[in-house]
């Protein structure tokens, strides 16, 4: 018997998770629809010039925020002794248990959230278009223009990878912190971003004083010519870029897996 | 077989076990007794792989429980004192949990529920604590795991349920199964247990089977003031005195063992009890 991964056991876990949480998923989806509807109502009430761009911003904010809240409750079974005993003594490997949560938090959540958002956004656009039709001098609607994309449209692939990383961080946080995992993980994230900002700033004003950077290259600012240019090999730039973009999620999943293995109740 | 050697375990600021060594064999129902905080639940959770030893070895059927491997987990079950059920029906609970245990027997499960008088289609979150506990016990027994750990299984059960519990448990002990029941309510399990283990301050204070106890100790009651010379422990009752004495050489002792009195004797007259059992294995 494979002690790390068995498709049969994983399927049983996925089914168990679905059966035991189906009511929560149903009510959760209904509340999500409600919250999205309220957000759209604010857009409707507070303006006459509607932009599909605003919907996309709303979608991303919701995806990150609700996704983080959902992920930080993933391992809430471990926060209480009685639930933790049942969960940890269930005959499945830690990897299978983690994979189940990754599936429900990343794939299942994203699909449900997107469907809810899409449904509400269709209704919103119907209302907006009928308003525009009825009073074209008062209301206007600007659809997304992919030929002249705005910043976030260009960065959508990066945003998706960042979303994976944030989700994975909050998933790991739900195992790490016994209580208030959402708040504590948010604090950790904010501190990390502040530290990173400070660190980059220190390097720029300390080690790299007299240089300026463009992409993956550094140029010296010396008065004497010729100026020096330091450049990383393109292959290394490519690897580093995607490692930094895609590496966070696997890193936090690994952290979560180790923490789950070490978990004592 | 379960082998624990030199087990050391401490919570953040409290040591529970220093160097505990004990063995549990299949084919027995062990009664794990001890005062509050002596480490009974900790020992069960360590055997289940829910707590990791600081030192020493815990070996359960050749597995290290701390690894929590699926092959190990599907052969052990723990009925915890505090337990959790999702808000689903009994049938749904069985559908999604039973397949994890290869030896699970559906027929057995429904039979136990019938004996416990639990309606089949009820939702678990609408049941009382006692009813839920009976569902958990029925599920645990139907899993047919080689090791069954029960932490205070009769807590929260009414008088009738305790009797049903004893009846059901009496039928499950087999040669290949090891059942360890931690309890304070010894009277509930008196007729079930065939091995008594008493923990005190993280040490094994007493670990003997019923035959050994009967060979060494005799439980009696005297209506007179005078007690047998070799009385080890006595306690007053309304009409006389209950006592425990050593069985004399050649004396046939088939009398009933009063577990509660034995427990008190071990706690209050430990050295005398140990002296009586010296050389008994």
Automatic annotation (TrEMBL), chain A:
Protein source organism: Arachidicoccus ginsenosidivorans
Residue ranges of the TM segments: 24-45, 57-78, 98-120, 158-177, 182-200, 235-258
Keywords: Membrane, Transmembrane, Transmembrane helix
Domain of life according to the entry: Bacteria
Annotated protein name in UniProt: Uncharacterized protein
TrEMBL record, chain B:
SUPFAM superfamilies: P-loop containing nucleoside triphosphate hydrolases (SSF52540)
Keywords: ATP-binding, Nucleotide-binding, Transport
The keyword Nucleotide-binding belongs to this UniProt entry's keyword annotation: yes
Presence of keyword ATP-binding: yes
Domain ABC transporter per the UniProt entry, residue ranges: 2-226
Coiled coil spans: none
One Pfam family, short name: ABC_tran
Transmembrane parts of this sequence: none
GO molecular function: ATP binding; ATP hydrolysis activity
Domain of life: Bacteria
InterPro entries per UniProt: AAA+_ATPase, ABC_transporter-like_ATP-bd, ABC_Transporter_VariousFunc, P-loop_NTPase
PANTHER family: ABC TRANSPORTER ATP-BINDING PROTEIN ALBC-RELATED (PTHR42939:SF1)
Annotated protein name in UniProt: ATP-binding cassette domain-containing protein
Organism of this sequence: Arachidicoccus ginsenosidivorans
């Amino acid at each position: 018997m494979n002690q790390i991964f068995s498709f049969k056991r994983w399927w049983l876990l996925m089914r168990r998770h679905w059966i035991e949480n189906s009511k929560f998923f149903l009510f959760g989806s209904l509340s999500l629809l409600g919250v999205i509807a309220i957000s759209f109502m604010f857009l409707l009430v507070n303006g006459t010039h509607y932009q599909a761009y605003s919907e996309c911003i709303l979608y991303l904010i919701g995806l990150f925020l609700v996704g983080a809240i959902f992920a930080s409750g993933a391992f809430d079974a471990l926060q209480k002794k009685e639930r933790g005993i049942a969960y940890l003594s269930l005959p499945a490997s830690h990897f299978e248990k983690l994979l189940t949560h990754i599936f429900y938090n990343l794939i299942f959540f994203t699909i449900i959230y997107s469907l809810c958002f899409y449904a509400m956004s269709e209704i919103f656009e119907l209302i907006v278009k009928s308003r525009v039709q009825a009073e074209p001098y008062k209301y206007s609607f600007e659809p997304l223009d992919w030929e002249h994309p705005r910043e976030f449209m260009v960065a959508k692939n990066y945003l998706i990878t960042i979303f994976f990383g944030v989700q994975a961080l909050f998933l790991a946080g739900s195992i790490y912190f016994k209580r208030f995992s959402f708040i504590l993980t948010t604090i950790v994230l904010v501190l990390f971003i502040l530290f990173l900002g400070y660190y980059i700033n220190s390097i720029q004003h300390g080690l790299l004083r007299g240089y300026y950077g463009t992409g993956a290259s550094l140029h010296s600012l010396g008065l004497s010519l010729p100026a020096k240019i330091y450049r990383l090999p393109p292959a290394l730039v490519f690897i580093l870029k995607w490692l930094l973009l895609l590496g966070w999620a696997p890193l936090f999943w690994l952290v979560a897996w180790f923490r789950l293995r070490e978990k004592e109740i | 077989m379960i082998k624990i050697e030199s087990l050391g375990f401490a919570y953040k600021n409290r040591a529970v076990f220093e160097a505990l060594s004990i063995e549990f064999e299949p084919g027995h129902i062990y009664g794990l007794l001890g005062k509050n905080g002596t480490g009974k639940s900790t020992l069960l959770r360590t055997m289940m792989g829910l707590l990791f030893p600081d030192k020493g070895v815990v070996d359960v059927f050749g597995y290290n429980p701390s690894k929590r491997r699926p092959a190990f987990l599907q052969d052990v079950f723990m009925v915890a004192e505090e337990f959790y059920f999702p808000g689903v029906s009994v049938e749904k609970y069985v559908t999604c949990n039973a397949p994890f245990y290869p030896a699970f027997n559906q027929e057995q499960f429904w039979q136990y529920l019938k004996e416990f008088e639990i309606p089949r289609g009820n939702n678990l979150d609408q049941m009382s604590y006692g009813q839920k506990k009976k569902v958990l016990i029925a599920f645990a027994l139907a899993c047919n795991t080689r090791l069954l750990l029960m932490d205070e299984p009769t807590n929260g059960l009414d008088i009738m349920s305790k009797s049903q519990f004893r009846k059901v448990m009496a039928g499950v002990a087999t040669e290949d199964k090891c059942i360890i029941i931690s309890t304070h309510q010894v009277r509930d399990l008196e007729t079930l247990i065939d091995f008594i283990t008493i923990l005190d301050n993280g040490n094994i204070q007493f670990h003997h089977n019923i035959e050994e106890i009967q060979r060494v100790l005799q439980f009696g009651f005297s209506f007179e003031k005078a007690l047998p010379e070799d009385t080890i422990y006595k306690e007053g009752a309304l009409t006389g005195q209950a006592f425990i004495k050593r069985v004399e050489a050649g004396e046939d002792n088939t009398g009933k063992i009063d577990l509660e009195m034995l427990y008190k004797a071990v706690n209050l007259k430990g050295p005398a009890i140990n002296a009586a059992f010296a050389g008994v294995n």
